[in-house]
Amino acid sequence: MKVLNYRRGAAFGVRRERLKGLTPHASRLTPRGSSSGFTLLELMLVVFILSVTALFVFPRVSSFGAADLKRTARHFAGLIQHLAQESSTTKQTYRLYFNLENGAYWAAVLGENGEFVEATDPMTRRRVLPKEISFEDVVTPAQGKVNEGEAFMQFFPVGVEKVWIHLKQGERQWTLVVNPLTGRVKVMDEYVDVQISQR
């Protein structure tokens, strides 16, 4: 009986040794040379990706200003054509006022009492230029070049005053030139200087 117990114990001991050899050690499961930080190569790769991204993002951001100025110029072109048509259709005289101090602009119609009354048409209601856009100056035959205070252009049933409107946003400047016969507006993405003699 003692011999059998010894052999069984020896057999169990061999099995334990074999199982022990099959059990992975913690040190073998841990990758060698691992680090919780970034390597120099990884940092250089991140910087490169950010630089390439900036090349595509920053030009688009800088173009937002040009888009706002262009949109404002188109708005004025539509507004002026609308007033020209209204004057021709209703046989009334209109004015488009520009406040060069606060960027406000609005339309007015000549009343029976000989005074101009602010128009109530939603299309021509008082508005203000978008932020960072302003009037550089307005040139009209009646007032000459106006760069402060208020200026206005007039619409008659038979035509429109030829007017130059200069808008600016930062370093950008645009010029709107009104055709006196058709009321159409030519838009140029630069400042076009003009000399005109007052009446």
From TrEMBL:
Keyword Transmembrane helix among UniProt keywords: yes
SUPFAM superfamilies xrefs: Pili subunits
Membrane spanning stretches: 38-58
InterPro entries found in the cross-reference section: N_methyl_site, Pilin-like
Keyword 4Fe-4S: no
This protein's UniProt keywords: Membrane, Transmembrane, Transmembrane helix
Superkingdom in the source lineage: Bacteria
NCBIfam families documented for this protein: IV_pilin_GFxxxE
Protein name: Prepilin-type N-terminal cleavage/methylation domain-containing protein
